[in-house]
Fold this protein.
Amino acid sequence: MLGILFAFAFCPVSAALFFGSLVPLAADRGSPLFLPSVYGVGTALPVAGFAVLLAAGSGWVNRTVHRLQVIEPWARRITAIVLIGVGVFETLRSTLYLISV
């Protein structure tokens, strides 16, 4: 899918380079397979590199989400305790202020 996306994105430029300069150059040099093969590998390298980066990034995200799922129950409990404590503190503070006035 990534290769198809890149092909659609760079199609006009790639077509112009391939048919406008590479095919005549390959015909002139007498290498109908070598130069187009080098061109194919050269245009596939960015797609392969981007795919490797996506795969490495998805693995990192997967590990991070797993770690967060382990920490998440404790984070919820701590957050609940802090919010209840702040609520009790503010309730007492406003109640004591009203009593003193």
